[in-house]
Amino acid sequence: xxxxxxxxxxxxxxxxxxxxxxxxxxxxxxxxxxxxxxxxxxxxxxxxxxxxxxxxxxxxxxxxxxxxxxxxxxxxxxxxxxxxxxxxxxxxxxxxxxxxxxxxxxxxxxxxxxxxxxxxxxxxxxxxxxxxxxxxxxxxxxxxxxxxxxxxxxxxxxxxxxxxxxxxxxxxxxxxxxxxxxxxxxxxxxxxxxxxxxxxxxxxxxxxxxxxxxxxxxxxxxxxxxxxxxxxxxxxxxxxxxxxxxxxxxxxxxxxxxxxxxxxxxxxxxxxxxxxxxxxxxxxxxxxxxxxxxxxxxxxxxxxxxxxxxxxxxxxxxxxxxxxxxxxxxxxxxxxxxxxxxxxxxxxxxxxxxxxxxxxxxxxxxxxxxxxxxxxxxxxxxxxxxxxxxxxxxxxxxxxxxxxxxxxxxxxxxxxxxxxxxxxxxxxxxxxxxxx
Length: 436
Known about the structure:
The chain is an all-alpha fold and about 425 residues long. It has helices spanning about 25-50, 65-70, 75-95, 105-115, 120-125, 130-135, 135-145, 165-180, 185-205, 210-215, 215-225, 245-250, 260-275, 280-285, 290-320, 325-330, 335-360, 375-405, 410-435; strands at about 60, 230-235, 240. Strands 1-3-2 form a 3-stranded antiparallel sheet. Helix 5 (about 120-125) crosses helix 11 (about 215-225). Mean pLDDT is about 85; it is low at about 1-10 and about 15-20.
């Protein structure tokens, strides 16, 4: 969320990081360390990793049967669904009946912090939690029970649809968060949530519950992040397993719209990073197109740049390595840890300060002060750089394993050179947003 109308004041919900000049970090050491990590990992993988080691959904050590029974028990699932509906009702009541001042209303923090940012650690620790918490899925289920209809009944979703509705939903939400003139106002949030609910309930009524799997922005967002969770479920026998996050990442479905969804995650976070720059604020305020139009073009431009760089990389990989099935989606899974690194870098401080403050407001405390960040400026800067670098290194590992599986041995390393260049470009951009 930005404060483009007032460069001298930034909303408490504006950014997960401090201004760039608040981060005491040497650009030389940050960039040198990042490049060293990428090149060393690339060379080591090329020399030591000659065969694919990830087994996707086939991997994992089953959890004890008692844990499986507790997780799948009907009371457990009913309780989790009830919590999701109760939280949604509370947010709606706060928007309708609560104070207009967002500093005294927990609803904006619940949506922009607890939901949007909180889904990151929740999905990493517990898997795709929004699938059970999703109040829209629960409302659809209850409606089908009343009508005595199978929730899965409906028209088959055309394969070409894929994740495209989720990509559009994520773009709409990030536009509200980062571009809308007053994103924390009750009116803006109510309008967005009403349209969002109507669209997805209509989609579920037409296509059945499978609509949420591919179209609900928050469910897809949580599901992609959960690919890096140590908890997974094997499709073959529905067993809960402990697994390497790389196996979950390797099992990411190569659906239409996957690249667009991940590029929205990356591009919107990048836009959030540079939208507070004085030069961009000045551009927006003086643009003849107007503030909202200019900011919208900036957001779309950031997403388009991320997507164009990836598409160029995919095309170059195909030229170097020969025929490649589904060239755009073949390596899209390697962007997920990069997106995660950007999310951690940009929103860690926001979550650990505004998250507790939102909970305190929901419990009745009037305009509580947020707690102090657990890390000082130096610690925060170090965490941010590490998050970006580690995310890119994980992406290099995931891309290498996919490359040695798809390409002949003589072309596997050469085919990764465009991906390495892409990782370096993304790293430069991500670090520049923090310390330039």
